[in-house]
């Protein structure tokens, strides 16, 4: 019988883990209930731990993957190369949120394996581990319309892809399960209906998104084709797996442990001394809070260093249009000058020359720009040292506005008389675009700050406010930064009276 309480499940999972040949679990760590702060289970130090200590070891055999699950032996044709039913021509499977380094096949394969193991119930070798995997998720895929609305103008709402994921499940997962029902369902087990299967696919897809690892080959070993069993021998298709215990670790943008991929086992080691009571933390990468929420269903203060705001070129164009105040004919001419690969470009026959005169191939025009702080990643001990501050504006945006103003100069030389004025206009346009972008969020920076600092919001709403507030902080920094640059230009520009005084002195 399955253990019923949270603690019993943790204990039975730990006992099961220890029973695998080759596992280790350091005596100074324990699995802890962290639900009070919304972090599920985690692993905490019970005594001081020195740097470079092996905290636990997971033999590769204990990992759930296409290699280890008996499913791939029962229906090998499904997991075989090229002719397989999983072959993905249109990359739809990636919509569940897969990394670009991980092919859709890896996702589909692991979802199938996880569904198979789940349906086996007590017969699965991983049952105690499956028991501690989540049944409910805070990832954006599971938020209601009302909850998503709390994210306001954050671009993360356009990246959830629930429908695309569902289409992929129906196209690639359900047919395999239905065609091999006798394999997937143990004898006498109740068959799931289509909607139940889709729900199960969502559950497994989201578990994989938040828990699975890319199974790297042994880091020390040179790559060789023969014994490279952990990397599929298809281009860039890294195998994914569910790694028991490594995925009980929570994570943050500053962390103290690292998962090493060895030949026969994965080991988790401390990157620096860890004091008794401290949580052992892994690292998911330099993710903005919006992205962390989408993939993992939580946010942290430390991840706000990687926050991003998307700025659309359409918004920037609207600022340019308002600022230039051209009539429609002149505006149309500028837009054509800016974008069309016109005669001048053809005769110049060189991209550098064409961009010098403000012309860009329509395909070169960026639709969206990303504003971020371009912060360094943590050092080798998992710590960050740089100051949380925006230190430059998006260069690609600056370049595209500048190219546009060169086109303006061609149509109306007096509007952009020289380089200095152009630089000033670029900054004015960026600043205005950032202000307009901030105004797309219905609440202000200050209102959100009050909601958070006075604990007026909880749960999903609190996480949504943290995401949108972080984006507003970034926009405010960008507005202030552009203004400081404008002030700098102003203080360097000689006023007519200064020029006259200088002339007088040199007489
Ligand atoms: C790999 S699992 C870690 C173990 C997980 N806490 C559990 O109970 O199974 C990743 C999930 O843990 C949670 N998590 C990880 N790091 C967290 C953190 N710093 N704060 C809150 N929740 C966190 C999120 O729900 C995330 O999707």
From TrEMBL:
Going by the entry's taxonomy, the superkingdom of the source organism is recorded as Eukaryota
In the UniProt record, does the keyword S-adenosyl-L-methionine occur?
yes
Kindly give the Gene3D superfamilies that the UniProt entry links to this protein: Rubisco LSMT, substrate-binding domain, set domain protein methyltransferase, domain 1
Q: Which GO terms describe its cellular component?
A: nucleus
**GO molecular function terms listed in the Swiss-Prot or TrEMBL record:** protein-lysine N-methyltransferase activity
**Which PROSITE patterns does the entry mention?**
SET (PS50280)
Keywords on this record? Methyltransferase, S-adenosyl-L-methionine, Transferase
A Pfam entry, by short name: SET
Among its keywords, does the record have S-adenosyl-L-methionine?
A: yes
Gene Ontology biological process: methylation
All copies of domain SET, residue ranges? 27-285
| InterPro entries attached to this UniProt entry | Rubisco_LSMT_subst-bd, Rubisco_LSMT_subst-bd_sf, SET_dom, SET_dom_sf, SETD3_SETD6_MTase, SETD6_SET
Q: What PANTHER family does UniProt report for this protein, alphabetically?
A: N-LYSINE METHYLTRANSFERASE SETD6, UNCHARACTERIZED PUTATIVE METHYLTRANSFERASE
From the Swiss-Prot or TrEMBL record, give the protein name. Ribosomal lysine N-methyltransferase 4
Organism of derivation: Diatrype stigma
Organism lineage string: Eukaryota, Fungi, Dikarya, Ascomycota, Pezizomycotina
